[in-house]
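Appendix B. One record, verbatim.
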Amino acid sequence: MARFQTKIRRSRFLVVGYSPEQMLVPGNALRDSIEQRILRAEDAYDAPAKPLSSKGKYGGYAAWKAKKAPPAERNWKFRGRTLRSMKVLAVAANRAVIGFTDPESNRVAYYNNRRVRQFGVSPRNRQAVALAFASLRNPIQVRQVA
């Protein structure tokens, strides 16, 4: 019996005509937009993130978090370290990279993202980046890269 295999093809777009200093503006706008969305407990599709687990002898993680660090929602805000370490890591001509500055926060974000995809670019985040690019003086030239 043949198994169905999905082929994943990425569509990459190249934004041309921006210096590294200019790319810092949309990079920071995207980082801020992602952080605000995660704090609202929304996933990378602008939908509410799934609730925390309530399984367990004492009500699960949701009950524990409600007592220790309310509200009991998936907002990455128990300690705040992960969101504080989310920064624009590198900028280059026509490129900005957003990530986490320390290995522990990177690991926490990886496992949180496996449960519910929250670290990613949502449609509202794309709008925030478009507004940031509109605030720059250069006209945007977009080419699709194979």
